[in-house]
Amino acid sequence: MSKIKIINIVGARPQFIKVAPVTEALNEVLGRKATVKMIHTGQHYNGNMSQIFFDELKIPKPNWNLRIGSGTHGEQTGKMLIEIEKALLEEKPDGAVVYGDTNSTVAGSLAAAKLHILSFHVEAGLRSFNREMPEEINRILTDHASSVLFCPTKDAVNNLKREGITKRGKVYLTGDVMKDALVKNSKIARKKSAIIKDLNLKRKKFLLATVHRAENTDTKRNLENIFNTFMDLKEKVVVPLHPRTRKYLEQYGLLKKILESLMVEIIKPVGYLEMLELERNARLILTDSGGIQKEAYLLKTPCITLREETEWVETVKAGWNKLVGADPKKIYSAARNFKPRKEREYIFGRGSASRKIAKIIEKMVC
Ligand code: UD1
Ligand code: UDP
Predict the structure, then answer these.
(1) Sign of the CA dihedral 95, 15, 60, 296?
(2) 212 given a catalytic annotation
(3) Residue ranges making up the domain that contains 200
(4) Is 10 helix (H, G, I), strand (E, B) or coil?
(5) Are residues 83 and 170 in the same domain?
(6) Which ligand is nearest to the CA of 246?
């Protein structure tokens, strides 16, 4: 009997973190019955945006690196579609798994759907209800193109219901695979990462910030407001700077002033273990990242979200996340005064989402 073949399609930083526990679970659950392969689109390509995660999380080397790189949305997604299709035609997998909401996600799900390959979307059903966000378009299209949808939260299941996606055997509430990754790696991070010491930081005496969303980076006013406020906060703010944001800060002529600031410490993007340690030790996190809002909640660090809306609404309802957009007054006031609620609920499952996903995949392909 020939082996079952599952292919993961990834390309951007958060997808490497999501694919790690799912690959492990697929290998455990399917064992010798299956081969688990990977297509890396090459959307992210710098060492600290890609390879570092493969090394730290011991993710098997991708079988395909399509080296698509950066470009406009149409250009990048179109090139991915062409190259993913070629790889899928050669591999002929029994199932393809896509993750999250990037251009790599939508290209992967569309390529699989057109070839009638059973496709699985991990982190399905998320909605910010802001169609100007490139990710929102990717989410909607991916959910509607994929065969099976794995939702991290109840709200995600309800979002799909509202769009008429209710078919039995299509939508599953599994919990969040990023929780699985965090549960597995936070102890390792404590042991292995020396970043707090290396940066000379003191526990709960600094803020951690990340900014990379198009709505913040692509408008000079928003990016300037955000970084000017960071410089005004009178507390150390550590910023692992996304290459997109660096590019825009340079282009707007803002980078030099920030680099000279004593209160804002710009560092290169860091690995996952370093990031978990920064998040756990920070007094507060300021971010426009999706994944970091969740990690902040899981690590019990209050979060200020530099966006007008979020798809991770549960963290806001739970009283641990506050939306402030790019408004300097709101950012300043929240950074000074925001106090999270004491009581906490399980929002993202119990750390077994990847195993649940692997079992469902097994049932569908074997
Ligand atoms: C992408 C995703 C976003 C996700 C983010 C995670 C889309 C539409 N956006 O945004 O949802 O939250 O990844 O980090 O898919 N660059 C480099 N080196 C790299 C990668 C990027 O220099 O390794 C620079 C390039 O100048 C590039 C820019 O960053 O043009 C943006 O990269 P891109 O992958 O298009 O989007 P992200 O902003 O990273
Ligand atoms: N992350 C990291 N190093 C960094 C910044 C982020 O390891 O310098 C991790 C972070 O811990 C989380 C994921 O990357 O697991 C989030 O990715 P990102 O913010 O790029 O994308 P988003 O989640 O917004 O799509």
Answers:
(1) negative
(2) yes
(3) 185-337
(4) strand
(5) yes
(6) 1
Residues 199 and 83 in one domain: no
- For a pocket test of ligand 2, which of 13, 217, 286 has the largest count of ligand atoms closer than 8 A to its C-beta? 13
Q: Is residue 342 part of a domain?
A: no
354, two tokens: 């990847």
Tokens 């470009």, residue located = 71
26 with 149, same domain: the answer is: yes
Total domain count, the chain: 2
Q: Is the pLDDT of residue 1 over 70?
A: no
Q: How far apart are the C-alpha atoms of 149 and 170, rounded to whole Å? A: 6
CA-CA distances (angstroms) from residue 123 to 22, 139, 228, 263, 300?
Answer: 12, 9, 34, 36, 22
- Give the residue among 150, 131, 178 at the shortest CA–CA distance from 309: 131
Q: Which domain CATH number covers 357?
A: 3.40.50.2000
User: How many angstroms does the Cα of residue 244 sit away from the middle of ligand 1?
Assistant: 6
**Residue nearest atom 13 in ligand 1 by C-alpha distance:** 12
pLDDT digits (tens, 9 = 90+) for 280-321: 999 999 999 999 999 999 999 999 999 999 999 999 999 999
Testing ligand 2's pocket by substitution, the residue of 122, 274, 292 carrying the most ligand atoms inside 8 A of its CB is: 292
Could you give the CA distance from residue 53 to residue 296 in angstroms, rounded to a whole number? 19
